Amino acid sequence: MIARKRTIGRFRIACAIMTLGLLAQVPALAAAPANWRINPARTHIAFAIDAVGYPRTHGQFHQFSGRISVDFDHPDRSSVTFHVQSQSVDVGSQPFDDYLRSAAFLDAAQFPSIDFVSKSVERVDDRTVRVTGDLTLLGVTRPLSVDVAVQRETAGGGDRLAFVAKTSIDRLAFGMNSGFPLVSREVELAISSEALAL
Question: What is the pLDDT of residue 26?
Answer without folding.
Answer: 36
